[in-house]
Design a protein that fits this description.
Length: about 350
């Protein structure tokens, strides 16, 4: 039996170790993927820290996977895929197909969602076996190290904007310009929105402009963020990528009438928002949970068309522990990516 390497967390919180595993055959409805790159996402902490139910160790995390199909399992040969095809697998790692959301075609909110690193071994590895419905085709113009982060960070920001109420020409603000937000700003500009970047500190203004933002709001000044947005006419949509409930809540008063706050930055604390802030201007708050395999494919195609790429730091799979620690420390600029090359 051939073997492959994985980086696995051996207990809650780590550490990671590199081990060899035997290469199993993909079962019915699954394919084996030779992993070329895998992004390190903050959501990997849900699994490494056993913060979700059903976690058993060792854990192989990683849900920003890019590689090539190595082997087709039974029942997948007639679904348009071939050995050698370049594919990505993201947070959406397959769905159950029988729950009410799935029967309604709303696969991303499937309560039995198959997330890599939780439902099956993830992409901190040289090889992954994934359900065929999780596959997104990578365009030729995207390198694997760019495609991997598109399968989670990319699709979450792209689809969060695409499915919002904003239309070209509307004022759209992106809260945070880190791992998610630096992509959100680029997508907002490419979609034709008048784009505002919101972050902490005057020193980030030049970076925001390099990303294409038309305006920059420094949230650390004496001017409240809401007032700053209203001075620009009020935001039709705020895409909240920052993982801070306080920062997210501070944007609500900056929304226009019938404006929409789209929350994708995860934070455990409640949002400090009063009903009156919403009722009088008919504002809306909603969460947005990543996207399906087709959404990932759309994200990558749009990115290739508009020259949008994540800013990444690549390291070999053997250094997964160091890459994970750098992500946790907030020192990555802006996505850590493991490579097997």
């Amino acid at each position: 039996m051939s073997t492959y390497k994985v980086a696995q967390a051996i207990a809650a919180g780590g550490p990671f170790e590199i081990v060899e595993r035997g290469a199993a055959e993909p079962g019915r409805g699954r394919v084996a993927i030779a992993v070329e790159a895998c992004g390190v996402c903050h959501s990997d902490t849900f699994f490494v820290d056993a913060a979700l139910p059903g976690i058993s160790f060792p854990v192989v995390p990683g849900h920003e996977i890019a590689g090539r199909i190595e082997q087709l399992g039974e029942g997948t040969q007639d679904q348009g895929w071939q050995v050698g095809d370049r594919v990505a697998v993201g947070w959406f790692g397959g769905s159950c197909h029988h729950c009410t959301p799935c029967r309604q075609g709303d696969f991303i909110v499937c309560p039995n969602l198959k997330v890599p690193g939780w439902s099956y071994d993830g992409g901190f590895a040289e090889r992954v076996i994934a359900p065929v419905d999780a596959l997104a085709r990578i365009p030729d113009a995207l390198a694997a190290s760019d495609a991997g982060p598109m399968a989670c960070a990319g699709v979450t920001t792209f689809d969060g904007l695409r499915r919002s109420s904003a239309r070209p020409g509307d004022l759209v603000a992106v809260l945070g310009i880190g791992g998610l937000g630096h992509l959100g700003v680029q997508y907002a500009v490419a979609m034709g929105f008048e784009t505002v970047a919101i972050a902490r500190g005057a020193d980030k203004a030049d970076f925001a402009k390099r990303l294409g933002a038309h305006h920059y709001v420094d949230s650390t000044t004496d001017t409240p963020v809401g007032d700053a947005l209203q001075s620009l006419g009020g935001a039709k949509v705020v895409l909240a990528t920052a993982g801070s409930s306080e920062a997210i809540a501070a944007t609500v008063d900056g929304l226009s009438h019938r404006g929409e706050l789209v929350v994708i930055g995860a934070a455990p604390e409640p949002l400090g928002i009063s009903p009156l802030q919403l009722i009088t201007a008919a504002r809306v708050i909603r969460g947005h949970p990543s996207g399906t395999a087709q959404d990932v494919q759309d994200t990558m195609a749009f990115s290739a068309l508009h020259g949008i790429r994540p800013m990444t730091e690549t390291v070999p799979l053997d250094q997964a522990g160091e890459a994970y620690a750098k992500m946790l420390a907030g020192a990555a600029r802006f996505r850590m990516v493991l490579t097997t090359g």
